[in-house]
Design goal:
Blueprint (H helix, E strand, L loop, with lengths): L2 H24 L5 H35 L2 H8 L1
Helix pairs in contact: 1-2
Length: 77
């Protein structure tokens, strides 16, 4: 899979999962308790992780790609 396709998928995941948060913010106060747990524990963490991945994912990929298991064993010997 090309990097542009992966980036597009993460971007759309981020956008689509933001929709329930908008509903949570603008819903009537008496209905918030229905949305609160799933919004707090599912949607917000996924949006934060996908946002961080879009922002700094290239550094994480570079960190893991430069350290293969063989390089780690050689550096500790």
């Amino acid at each position: 899979m090309k990097e542009s396709t992966k980036r597009s998928m993460v971007r759309w995941l981020h956008i689509i999962l933001a929709i329930p948060i908008i509903g949570y913010i603008y819903s009537p106060f008496d209905l918030v308790h229905f949305y609160a747990p799933i919004t707090r524990y599912v949607f917000v963490p996924i949006i934060v992780i996908s946002g961080l991945w879009m922002w700094k994912g290239h550094l994480v990929r570079r960190l893991f790609s430069s350290r293969s298991p063989q390089n780690l064993r050689a550096s500790h010997s």
